[in-house]
Design goal:
It contains ten helices and eight strands. It has about 260 residues and is an alpha/beta fold. It has one domain: NADP-dependent oxidoreductase domain (TIM Barrel, Alpha-Beta Barrel). α1 links the parallel β1 and β2. α2 runs parallel beside α3, α3 crosses α4 and α7 packs across α8. The longest helix is centred in the middle third of the chain and has 16 residues.
């Protein structure tokens, strides 16, 4: 899995944005059935000239479609829309469907993996309770848990659990949806001659997360990938760590406490 992904939530020019991202060096695209742009992602991959095997493609199934049979049907539908023979990572998008349907959905994705339709099974927006539920059912741990993560909302208990159980943590909203005017963020950006988004993405990478920035602006798509020629020092990392507001810092739906 490439350490930097390109998110396409609420992207209404998905084909051109993904083409731009692939040209800028991204090889990881994060989509979802609910985004209604799987077809555009698949088209962009085919038109890019980048070999499918070099691309890591994620999609997700939202809670209204959870359940064993509906999930298997959804996997086939996603494959058709993408125009792919397999999907690299398939996530349960959220935990709102309740224990029984969550587990049935997880089992369906495991079976789809055994059938060769998907390569890895993961979850999104799962709290510790939801992750423990999978373990208690005797199913293998998810490969990934994708959650809201940035300095203002660090979800440390969930991150610690994932690390203890070798679950990769992906970070959505890594640049706080553009709300980057905090003086500490701005100061660190000025110190490095970088923009604030690059600082936040570098923080995410140094924390061991897989950030998923999204943009429709070609310049921003490219600058968000220019992260490997500078490093935040320990003091700067500590300053950003100190911005954590817990759940109050969330800027998205963040349904990690769903029953």
């Amino acid at each position: 899995m490439p350490l930097l992904g390109f998110g396409v939530y609420q992207n209404y020019t998905t084909r051109s944005s993904v083409l731009e991202a692939l040209q800028a060096g991204y090889r990881h695209v994060d989509s979802a059935q609910a985004y209604r742009n799987e077809s555009a992602v698949g088209e962009a991959v085919r038109d890019s000239g980048v070999d499918r095997s070099e691309c890591f493609i994620t999609t997700k199934c939202i809670s209204k479609n959870h359940g064993y049979d509906s999930t298997l049907k959804g996997v086939d539908e996603s494959l058709t829309k993408f125009g792919f023979e397999y999907i690299d990572l398939f996530l349960i998008h959220d935990p709102y469907s309740g224990t029984e349907r969550r587990l049935a959905t997880y089992k369906a994705l495991q079976d789809a993996r055994r059938a060769g339709k998907i390569r890895s099974v993961g979850v999104s927006n799962y709290g510790i309770k939801h992750l423990q539920e999978i373990a208690n059912a005797g199913y293998g741990a998810p490969a990934v848990n994708q959650i809201e993560l940035h300095p203002l909302c660090q979800q440390r208990p969930i991150v610690d659990y994932c690390r203890e159980h070798s679950i990769v943590v992906q970070a959505y909203c890594p640049i706080i949806r553009g709300n980057m005017d905090h003086p500490i963020i701005q100061m660190i950006a000025q110190n490095h001659g970088r923009d604030a988004a690059q600082v936040l993405l570098r923080w995410s990478l140094q924390k061991g997360f897989v950030p998923l920035p999204k943009s429709v602006t070609p310049e921003r798509i490219r600058s968000n990938a220019q992260l490997y020629d500078f490093e935040l020092d320990s003091e700067e990392m500590a300053q950003l760590d100190g911005l954590d507001q817990g759940k109050k810092g969330a800027i998205s739906w963040n349904p990690v406490d769903a029953p």
